Amino acid sequence: MATISKKNQTTQHENIPLVNGSTKPKANTKKATDTDAKKIFVLDTSVILYDHSAIQNFQEHDVAIPITVLEELDNFKKGNDIKNFEAREFIRFIDRLSAEHKLQEWLPLNGKTKGKFRVLMNNSSSLDAVNIFGDKNDHRILNSALQLQQEMTKHKVVLVTKDINLRLKARALNLVAEDYETGKIQDVAGLYTGNDTVEDVQANTINDLYEKGVTDVKKVFTEAPTDNHFYILKSFKNSVLAFYNAADKQLERVDKLNAFGVKPRNAEQAFALHALLNPQIKLVSIQGVAGTGKTLLALASAIEQRREYKQIYLARPVVPLSNKDIGYLPGDIKSKLNPYMEPLWDNLKYIQNQFAETSKEYQKIRDMVDLEKLVITPLAYIRGRSLSNIIFIVDEAQNLTPHEVKTIISRAGENTKIIFTGDIYQIDTPYLDSQSNGLSYLIDRAKNHPLYAHITLLKGERSELANLANELL
């Protein structure tokens, strides 16, 4: 009589009946309804750089941007980062929208169900934010919203910004301020984990998995579970690691595979390596705190599959140190980027040091780097390329926006596998959080797709000292 262990239940699945008639919990699908009067949303620059189509996402409500936002976007229009793309796309859209109109007038947005749009001038309100906080762009944006609030007394004016401090300042001036919610994951605590523990499985089912490697899914579930989902199946005496194969529609045994000298140290790592080495799964995400082995497993599995792909790319978003641009660092572009790429090199050296310096495996990794079979590069350099016949590992994916993740995946060509790794609770950019980052968005949206698999790593394996930091500090 199989039952899902409460310890490992996930709230993202639809009800999946087990053979004993019990079910897994079903996600809450209730949608909130907005019964408030018509509003005017004032967007700041951070929202536009996060999503250039943001002004289209406020239903029938009106949207405005301060002219200071246009000025700031002008500084972002050049460059190869996603934020530069977002700035350019928004500027082009506004140019088309205002081709025969003045931007200080309320212009209808596309679609009959949309509201109107206008640009706000930097007029001071009776409550002058510049006077209170000092003369800077954020405070000019506040003044524009405050002035609009005084003019449009019959409407609720709301400042929308991803800058937490700006929201606090707005509220201090009695101005309603909200985060940009589109694409946000509401229940991060219940985010899909990729695996469950199933108790009270029939002993003969577990024996089948050990002897034959596969078993009929109906021996455990009365309905098909989530595609590419992993399980720890337990009977009274034995247990086995299992995987629901989306292609074959059956449960198969998960063996603890070796990837170029790296062996899994726990069940979740075994699940991760199984997904990473599975040629049928083209998109993999691995989430977990520092020291759980996310990047190491991804890199080791890529090297293990080197003969199946022309190149291996390792990339990570460049988040400037102390919010400074990389231009302040000394040296050429390679020297400037080395501090950001060093963690990737550390993992590569760890894999290489599994072998003696005179071994073929040690030399193989050196040759792969020298011949650019394995390339470590900043993520910005990937944009615009067509990614065919490669394994593409994106580290620190929690520092990407949902649009950046979508852009990366959309570059995939034939015979390409993309791996995202990161920790959704360790955000290094001020305009993202655990709910709005691209990794959380991917995990929530891609689950139950036959080309996708996800695993959340829970146990730190770096060292006992590192575990102490994660658990106690």
Features:
473 residues; alpha/beta; Rossmann fold; 2 domains; six-stranded mixed beta sheet; 18 strands; 32% helix; PhoH family protein; ATP-binding; PhoH2-like
Tell me briefly what this model is.
The chain has 473 residues and is α/β, with parallel strands linked by helices. It folds into 2 domains: 39-178, 5'-nuclease (Rossmann fold), CATH 3.40.50; 262-472, P-loop containing nucleotide triphosphate hydrolases (Rossmann fold, 3-Layer(aba) Sandwich).
What this model shows, in words?
By secondary structure, this protein is of the alpha/beta class. It has 2 domains: 39-178, 5'-nuclease (Rossmann fold, 3-Layer(aba) Sandwich); 262-472, Rossmann fold (3-Layer(aba) Sandwich). 32% of the residues lie in helices and 18% in strands. The chain is built from 14 helices and 18 strands. The protein has helices at 45-50, 67-76, 82-97, 129-133, 137-151, 164-172, 203-212, 267-277, 294-304, 333-352, 360-370, 402-410, 438-446, 464-472; strands at 3-4, 39-43, 62-66, 107-108, 116-120, 156-160, 176-178, 195-199, 214-215, 230-234, 239-245, 250-253, 283-288, 311-316, 374-378, 390-394, 417-422, 452-457. The strands form 3 sheets. A 6-stranded mixed β-sheet has the order 1-8-10-11-12-9, sandwiched between helices. A 6-stranded mixed β-sheet has the order 4-5-3-2-6-7. A 6-stranded parallel β-sheet has the order 15-14-16-17-13-18, sandwiched between helices. A hairpin with a 4-residue loop joins strand 11 and strand 12.
